[in-house]
Amino acid sequence: MSEPRGGQRAASNRRAVARKIAVQALYRWQVNAGPWQDLLLEFESAEDMPKADREYFDALVRGVAERGADWDAALARYTDRAPAGLDPVEHAVLLIGLFELTERPDVPYRVVINEGVALARRFGATDGHKYVNAVLDRAARELRREEH
């Protein structure tokens, strides 16, 4: 029985690394706009990419960047300020979280929130993780009612 659980843990860790790199890529995309395809090429040689779920990284970056304006409009329903006024790190984390809550029902909402908070703690402003937690929780209550 421990083998599947260990395999799930390894897959989860690979996705966590993919999220970390995706936050970096989407941060870069915000401060220096360009085609999302360039982000995939630029970050394919990231130091941690061998430890990441590459397909998941690609899906996150593509899924967020292709519909950036749509995601910002959706995000605005859960924030107290315009997405353009958000810190770029927290903005990237929230976009990934919103994408996962909407497009990845295979990822439990609690995982989405926990991963978002962890990324905001690691890369964001001092109390940015509290804001990320509140926004993603608000979004999860609406988008994942059946899980809440």
Describe the secondary structure blueprint for this structure.
Elements (H helix, E strand, L loop, with lengths): L1 H30 L4 H8 L10 H13 L1 H9 L11 H16 L5 H15 L4 H16 L5
Helix pairs in contact: 1-2, 1-3, 1-5, 2-3, 3-5, 4-5, 5-6, 5-7, 6-7
The CATH superfamily is: NusB-like
> For this structure, what is the CATH class?
Mainly Alpha
* Uncertain stretches of 5 or more adjacent residues: none
Mean pLDDT: 91
Describe this structure in words.
It is a single chain. This protein is mostly helical. 72% of the residues lie in helices and 0% in strands. It contains seven helices and no strands. It has helices spanning 2-31, 36-43, 54-66, 68-76, 88-103, 109-123, 128-143. The longest helix has 30 residues, at 2-31. The radius of gyration is 15 Å and the shape is globular.
